[in-house]
Design brief:
four-stranded mixed sheet; single chain; 29% helix; 25% strand; disordered C terminus; UDP-n-acetylglucosamine1-carboxyvinyl-transferase, Chain; 24 strands
């Protein structure tokens, strides 16, 4: 097993270049299954989730070639099966996008239900309802495998989502791209990576309109041609570094970002007293010698504050004056990491979906465990601020979504390293 070891108390400053968006990559890579020619995907983050989804495509028969650490060539033409039920599929949450992609290509799919971070129920009933409306009936085998089957080419349909769901929106988009006729998705999610997926598919010849609004219209096409496409920057990675630098009262130029995607994050930083300046593809934040104050924060679907930045901001708010109230409106169990922050001296209480954060309590290093990807990032931020040494285990969660996080933090002045711990079984903490 490996751990992160952090000697806290260092002020972070400098420049950081943001990698491609994880949430876009894990949707766009499965989307290549729909293409009738080879594709090149650029600005891919070099993270374990990308490695895993690329391996899954190879297992299906695709030819996947890594050109460099941020570029993949994918030839999906050799894929000749719609069955993806091995253990690698169960290893990541976003593998359920294989359902939409395989249904879109073969009108059938057999996909194992995925794993990934465990911080609440992620039912796929809306996915299955949408597929059924398009003519692909779905059976659940032993509660672990979805078997979707259609008598012929799936048909366009009007689908209203009961709740705003990123996963459902993406899966139905993928299934609809080659369906017969028009599909209309109402109450659709509007996140930047949904727009990026639509741009990718449209660049190949798909006919998708309305991505980024709550109504998406997709007219099915027969053929998608190969392209070279660059993925958008990762707004959550950017928000993580911004929270870390604010927590340590440093100054940071965040490069390779789309400032509009960061508006809800920068608005909260301004509210607590951080100086923020936006450029064309960069954002400068400066918390040097600033007296940061409390704020209230509520996670919401885009364009609201992203749930994937909530844990990092809770860790940062623990360093601010006053009592902050954080409300988690997206997931029902995303506060598992709070008990780890309590071990480090934080004063945080949780009542249902609400966390009450008493700021300015001294944090101290402690052995803690990442409970999911963004929780792990929050523990890193707390460790950077805390006095003494923090040891973070279960770092495989963190490496699912952050490229070269050790190297990037060390370049900003952090004292952080990875340490191998002999005699411990990583599976025991998975």
């Amino acid at each position: 097993m490996e751990k992160y070891i952090i000697n806290g108390g260092k002020v972070l400053s400098g420049e950081v270049t943001i990698s491609g968006a994880k949430n876009a990559a894990v949707a766009i890579i499965p989307a290549t299954i729909l293409c009738d020619e080879p594709c090149r995907i650029e600005n891919i983050p070099n993270i374990s989730d990308v490695t895993l989804i690329a391996k899954i495509l190879q297992n299906l028969g695709a030819k996947v070639t890594r050109v460099n650490k941020s570029t993949l060539d994918i030839d999906p033409r050799p894929i000749n099966t719609y069955s993806a039920v091995d253990d690698s599929v169960r290893g990541m949450r976003a593998s359920y996008y294989l359902l939409g992609a395989l249904i879109g290509r073969f009108n059938n799919a057999k996909v194992a239900l995925p794993g990934g971070c465990n911080f609440g129920l992620r039912p796929i009933d809306q996915h299955l309802k949408g597929f059924a409306a398009m003519g692909a009936q779905c059976d659940l085998i032993n509660g672990a495998i979805v078997d979707a089957h259609s008598q012929g080419r799936i048909q366009g349909a009007s689908i209203y989502l009961d709740t705003v769901s990123v996963g459902t929106t993406i899966n139905l988009m993928l299934a609809a791209v080659k369906a017969q006729g028009m599909t209309i998705i109402e109450n659709a999610a509007k996140e930047p990576h949904i727009v990026d997926l639509a741009n990718f598919l449209n660049s190949m010849g798909a006919n998708i309109r309305g991505a980024g609004t709550d109504v998406i219209k997709i007219r099915g096409v027969d053929y998608l041609h190969g392209i070279t496409y660059s993925i958008i920057p990762d707004q959550i990675e950017a928000g993580t570094y911004m929270a870390a630098v604010a927590a340590t009262r440093g100054k940071l130029l965040v490069k390779n970002v789309t400032p509009k995607h960061l508006e809800s994050i920068t608005a909260k930083l301004k509210e607590i007293g951080v100086y923020v300046e936006e450029f064309d593809e960069a954002v400068l934040i400066d918390a040097t010698d600033r007296k940061l104050r409390r704020c209230n924060l509520k996670t919401m679907p885009h364009p609201g504050f992203p749930t994937d930045c909530q844990p990092q901001f809770v860790a940062m708010l623990a360093t601010c004056e006053g009592t902050s109230i954080v409300t988690e409106n997206v997931w029902d169990n995303r506060y598992q990491y709070i008990r780890e922050l309590l071990l480090m001296g934080a004063h945080i209480s949780v009542e249902g979906r609400v966390a009450i954060v008493d700021g300015m309590m001294p944090l101290h290093g402690a052995p803690v465990k990442a409970t999911d990807l963004r929780a792990g990032a929050a523990l890193i931020i707390a460790g950077l601020v805390a006095s003494g040494v923090t040891e973070i285990s279960s770092i495989h969660y963190i490496e699912r979504g952050y490229e070269e996080i050790i190297e990037k933090l060390r370049a900003l002045g952090a004292d952080i390293r990875k340490q191998y711990v002999p005699g411990e079984d990583a599976s025991a903490t998975a």
